[in-house]
Amino acid sequence: MSEEPGFAGACVAVVGLGLMGGSLAGALATRQACRQVVGVSRRPETLRTALERGWIHHGTTDLIEGTAQADVVVLATPPRVVLRQLREIGPHLQAGTLVMDLASTKAQVLRAMEGLPACVQPLGGHPMCGKEQAGIEAAQPDLFAGRPFILSPLPRTSAGALEQGKALVRAVGAVPVVLDAADHDRMVAWVSHLPHTVALSLMGAAMAGAQQDPGLWSLAASGFRDTTRLAASDPDMMLDIFLTNQENILRAMNVFREQFDKLYALIEAGDEAPLRECIEAASRRRRELNL
Amino acid sequence: MSEEPGFAGACVAVVGLGLMGGSLAGALATRQACRQVVGVSRRPETLRTALERGWIHHGTTDLIEGTAQADVVVLATPPRVVLRQLREIGPHLQAGTLVMDLASTKAQVLRAMEGLPACVQPLGGHPMCGKEQAGIEAAQPDLFAGRPFILSPLPRTSAGALEQGKALVRAVGAVPVVLDAADHDRMVAWVSHLPHTVALSLMGAAMAGAQQDPGLWSLAASGFRDTTRLAASDPDMMLDIFLTNQENILRAMNVFREQFDKLYALIEAGDEAPLRECIEAASRRRRELNL
């Protein structure tokens, strides 16, 4: 990290050592990206696991103790826990501390960051990666490699603090993308939050179908597996996402329903030409995407 | 295949050497499961590829020539092409020939198989595996390994013909599951056809969102990739599925919409307890599934 001055000497406190926080701590520590990684977790066994793996240098269950001396604090907890923790740690932070989060929605978090003392630097963050497993057992230090990592500054965020945030993002192997919180929340509603609602509803529908035909589960192949994978995500995280990005998600859901109803009407009519056109437009675009 | 008498000496004609037919021919030939594999394709270059890979012993673009001398005929074409080919090959088949298909819907195919001459043996088939790529380039002889492979006999299908079908299924590494055509179509509507409609609609919604925010594609991560994967499936196949299993698909779509609307209402109300309950029920069931 010699090319990123101001970060190599930092003490980074990671609050929450689940999939995201555990992976971030692991990436920082194993890449020796900063001077010290302090882990904060409610559960002592999580701290033990993180210490054993060499992902943190020091662990504590005390939020204030763990963050008060840090140069960088990363809150890696669900969106609504982040809101609470920002209120709790604010008064105890050192002047100049960079306070980041990794939550899946940004507007509410950034509003809460406005309430931080003027002497600390707020910066929203959201790494665009994940998997349906939760907890430190699912964490892996290469989780961020090559992935976009959104950074959302406030007007009060200094240029230096934004650079420090970028340095942290690069240090874990990700690609920094600066994006306004409102833009972020509007865009991820389409590509992340809407897919969660769809996966949950698809599971709900199959569960209804299984009441008549319990054997249908044995016929579920890779298509069903992939389309419903997001439904297995952490319920707390999904709940917080839905409750902190309601407006954008509801708008995306309305557009999805229009598309779904259009497809329903075309299948019902059995009119081949317009049905083919509808299928081919979506199919072509999907194959063009380099996912 | 010495433990499966009546199959090792067979000449198997595979009609259509795409993802499914190519993989099946490849599995039969490379496992030396039968005496001869004859490939039938409209495109000479597909036959050349199959011959070069050792997946067929003989290839022809002539449907009648390729099937007239076979002991087993497997139609590996889209559902509505299967319907047409059954009419075309029927009068030319040898007495005792086993006629199978691999189409994703079974009721219409089985009705068409009723029209085959009394001297041949009809048996519907549907291997529960697949991927979004099409064509022989995507084919792989291990595609069926360990997967359920539905077999749907007609009342007129002899026990010996069903056993021969099971032998073929086992010969390609799959697990035979005997299922009535109507039951099959009702069940796969939930776990395969409905997910296709959902993936297409999700792509349609994101395309609408991208008109305002073209940058959203760069934020699409593994969740979006997996949830929309089925939208990249072969349009011809999707069209044929939708048009040959309309009633079951429309019913499943209606139930999906109920689930989706319920989730919408819960997010809109922002009422945490029932929203959490809805999320947790689907999430718990999804994690229980061994997919």
Give the biggest sheet of chain A: 8 strands, mixed
CATH architecture assignment of the largest domain in chain A: 3-Layer(aba) Sandwich
How is the CATH topology of the largest domain in chain A named? Rossmann fold
Instruction: List unreliable stretches of 5+ residues of chain A.
Output: 1-5
Most extensive interface? A-B, 91 and 91 residues
The number of helical segments of chain A is 12
Question: What level of helicity do the residues of chain A show?
Answer: 40-55%
Whole-number mean pLDDT of chain A: 94
> Strand share of the residues of chain A?
5-15%
What is the overall silhouette of chain A?
elongated
What is the CATH homology-level superfamily of the largest domain in chain A? NAD(P)-binding Rossmann-like Domain
Compact overview of the structure:
2 copies of one chain form a homodimer. With 291 residues, chain A is α/β, with parallel strands linked by helices.
Write up this protein.
The structure is a homodimer of 291-residue chains. Chain A is elongated and about 65 Å long. The longest helix of chain A has 32 residues, at 181-212. Chain A has twelve helices and eight strands. Chain A is 52% helix and 13% strand. In chain A, strands 3-2-1-4-5-6-7-8 form an eight-stranded mixed sheet, with helices on both faces. The first copy, chain A, has two domains: 11-179, Rossmann fold (3-Layer(aba) Sandwich), CATH 3.40.50.720; 184-288, 6-phosphogluconate dehydrogenase C-terminal like domain (6-phosphogluconate dehydrogenase C-terminal fold). With 291 residues, chain A is of the alpha/beta class. The interface between A and B is large, with 91 and 91 residues.
